[in-house]
Design a protein that fits this description.
The protein is an alpha+beta fold. The chain contains six helices and twelve strands. The protein is elongated.
Length: 418
């Protein structure tokens, strides 16, 4: 793009109106050119001004999510490093490995999204660099033309004589304004050139950092694929061991289903009996959905909500009314929200269970050993309810946790904070 700026033409008679007219048109032309270049430069820089913060927010969000996933993997690794001495523990490890594989797959997806976001950043910055380089070339060409015109004007006309030859003060002032505008425009073009060159330097530095981050993420992604493959092989090995115990697995599954039905019938019976005596304490439970604290500190979900395939037995579907959370840091169960202890019951297979009412909602905490609350007591968020039951040779217990809205079962994972 070449900007055709007219050369400043001066006659030997400085009082001739042609001189003033040509100068006036020249200044108008360069002012118009200034406006066009300024607007064009702003348009070119819009992607730089607005897209970068959005891309940065995307990458920051992905990195925060990744921190959470890495902590979860660390928790599962701690559980997997425990020595197994029974079929029950081997089966528990299969569930833990299944959870770890899910988390690693989420982590891999996280890295993929970050790499994609970085690619978009690099692509956008490269476009911005190309546009800035073009803008700098245009401004340079125009600035050179302005310097040439200034040089020609200085050789062909004396500014003082130009002012003194005016017919009156008004015309002299007008000529002074024209020359001042011309000088100001030339200064602005010089400043615009410096600013664009500085912006180009910053973009070049930024794109280099982004390329380094992308390379680092690619290396981490490769390592995560290797770790995922290792976990899958470990899981398959344990499944192979447990498949030899098919009869025992079927018996255990039948017993768990029977225990789950007993717990469900107890909850439904309580719901029927409590229709006329609902506690309103914690009735705004629904407003905290998705933000509830976890009932076990640092827990890992080893059995998910709803129907899903048995981790070992092919073609067998298991059903869970809640989630099973393996503790990793503490064996204490806590209330996820303020409420009133409605029932403390004993169920074979689930040991002790606590039902807390929060208005129209219920939370259920099962497989507890030592109970620290009593029926009718009001509890607050994070208040200890009891200790998880575990065998003498086990370091960690498993909490069975359910959330109900009257007779409707909810997926606890969707109600708890990520």
């Amino acid at each position: 793009m070449i900007l055709n700026t007219p050369s400043l033409i001066c006659t030997t008679d400085v009082s001739d109106k042609k001189t003033t007219t040509v100068l006036h048109k020249f200044v108008q032309n360069i002012c118009a050119t200034c406006s066009k270049i300024s607007v064009w430069s702003i348009i070119l820089l819009l992607p730089v001004l607005f897209s970068q913060p959005l891309f940065s927010q995307d990458v920051d969000k992905l990195r925060n999510e990744r921190e959470s996933l890495l902590k979860e993997i660390e928790s599962t690794r701690n559980l997997l490093n425990t020595k197994r001495t029974s079929r029950e523990e081997t089966f528990a490890l299969v569930n833990i490995l299944a959870h770890e594989i899910e988390v690693r797959e989420s982590l891999i997806n996280n890295f993929r999204q970050e790499i994609e976001a970085l690619n978009l950043q690099i692509e956008q910055n490269q476009l911005n660099i190309n546009e800035l380089e073009l803008s700098i070339k245009v401004i340079k060409d125009e600035y050179v033309r302005l310097l040439q015109d200034t040089y020609l004007r200085r050789n062909s006309m004396n500014e003082l004589l130009f002012f003194l030859s005016a017919k009156n003060f008004s015309e002299a002032y007008h000529r002074h304004r024209l020359l001042k505008e011309y000088s100001s425009y030339r200064q602005r073009q010089g400043q615009a050139l410096i600013e664009n060159q500085n912006q180009l330097k910053l973009l070049m530095q930024k794109i280099e950092v982004q390329r380094e981050n992308k390379e680092a993420s690619l290396n981490k992604l490769e390592k995560e694929y290797a770790s995922l493959n290792e976990s899958q092989l470990q899981k398959q090995k344990l499944i192979g061991e447990l498949q030899k115990e098919e009869q025992w697995l079927k018996q255990q599954l039948a017993e768990k289903e029977r225990q789950a039905k007993v717990l469900e019938s107890q909850i439904l019976e309580y719901i029927r009996q409590s229709q006329s005596e609902k506690s309103t304490y914690g009735k705004d439970f629904a407003e905290s959905m998705g933000k509830l604290i976890w009932p076990v500190s640092g827990g890992v979900v080893v059995n998910h909500f709803g129907e899903h395939e048995h981790p070992v037995l092919k073609g067998v579907v298991i059903k869970n009314n809640g989630i099973d959370i393996q503790s990793t840091l503490s064996n204490e169960a806590v209330a996820v929200y303020p409420g009133e202890i409605s029932r403390v019951i004993t169920i074979p297979g689930y040991n002790n269970a606590i039902i807390i009412r929060h208005g129209d909602y219920l939370t259920v905490y099962a497989n507890l050993k030592d109970i620290q609350v009593k029926q009718g007591q009001k509890v607050e968020t994070g208040e200890q309810l009891g200790t998880l039951y575990k065998e003498d040779n086990e370091a960690n217990g498993v909490l069975h946790f359910e959330i109900w809205k009257e007779s409707q079962k909810l997926n606890p994972v969707q109600c708890l904070r990520p």
